[in-house]
Amino acid sequence: MKIATWNVNSVRKRTGNLVAWLQNAKPDVVVLQEIKAQEAQFPRLEIEAAGYKVEIVGQKGFNGVALLSLHPVEITARALPDAEADEPARYIQGRIATPKGPLTVGGIYLPNGNPIATDKFTYKIAWMGRLIRQAKALLQAEEMFVLGGDYNVCPTDLDVYDPKAFANDALCQPQSRAALRTLLNLGLTDAVRAFHQDAPCYTYWDYQAGAWAKDWGLRIDHLLLSPQAADRLAAVGIDKPERGRPDPSDHVPVWCELDLAA
């Protein structure tokens, strides 16, 4: 089973790119971030025509997450616990039956947190604390799960093209990295690093300053696996060519394959 994450940076602008990628890559489950659309604006017909069931947590003009699946899916959460009534649309979670038992997939659009000397950074760290509590609750079930999404955290200096330039950025702050380490130290596996320990493996290139052409990238999109899912991890990939297509997102898809054969 192939599970992917992609920050599409406006699904209405990238519908063609998204559908073409779905048809070519054929992921079983995809979590999308920054869809910037409400239910009525989401290109449901195009996605369903590609064979996918669609569930979204939308928001007008900002944020927004979606879960696409080739398989029947039960949506088990549309926000993290302790959500406020007007909380931005940043989390979706679904449960899928597989030959090896249930698989839960969570889709995450973690707050950016910049500038760091504002409440935005405080909110980011608090949101990460809630995500950690959600992961702890999922671990208690001792089942397979994948938490995929745009985490807006570069785990180490290897994950940013110029660590000095990002020293004051929320993506690279010690508190951000410590919170992500806390999440991993619960027993989760960073799928990309399980296969590629020493390569940058960027997933994001800014639209500015020729970042794509210069390979000035960041690794901020992650797939974190429970022990039960990590035991079945068979492959990972980053679909870097998507960044070079016309009118691309500034992020590219990241995927992993789990061996769930009967």
Set down the secondary structure blueprint.
Layout lengths: L1 E6 L7 H11 L3 E5 L10 H6 L3 E5 L7 E5 L4 E4 L13 E6 L6 E7 L9 H22 L3 E7 L23 H11 L4 E2 H5 L8 E2 L5 H4 L2 E2 L2 E5 L1 H4 L2 E6 L15 E5 L4
Parallel strand pairs: 1-2, 7-8
Antiparallel strand pairs: 1-14, 2-4, 3-4, 5-6, 6-7, 8-12, 9-12, 10-11, 13-14
Helix pairs in contact: 3-4
Q: What does this 3D model show about the protein?
A:
The chain has 262 residues and is α+β, with helices and mostly antiparallel strands. It has one domain: 4-Layer Sandwich (Deoxyribonuclease I, Chain A). 24% of the residues lie in helices and 26% in strands. The chain is built from seven helices and 14 strands. Helix 3 packs parallel to helix 4. The radius of gyration is 17 Å and the shape is globular.
Summary tags:
Deoxyribonuclease I, Chain A, alpha+beta, about 25% helix, 7 helices, about 260 residues, six-stranded mixed sheet
CATH H level: which superfamily? Endonuclease/exonuclease/phosphatase
Return the string of H and E elements: EHEHEEEEEHEHEHEHEEHEE
Which class do the helix and strand fractions yield?
A: alpha+beta
In total, the number of domains comes to 1
Please identify the top-level CATH class.
Alpha Beta
How far apart are the first and last residues' alpha carbons, in Å? 12 Å
Q: How many H/I helical runs?
A: 7
| Proportion of strand residues | 25-35%
Total strand segments: 14
Mean pLDDT: 97
Strand order of the largest sheet: 3-4-2-1-14-13
What CATH architecture would you give? 4-Layer Sandwich
Weakly predicted, low-confidence segments? none
- Specify the biggest β-sheet: 6 strands, mixed
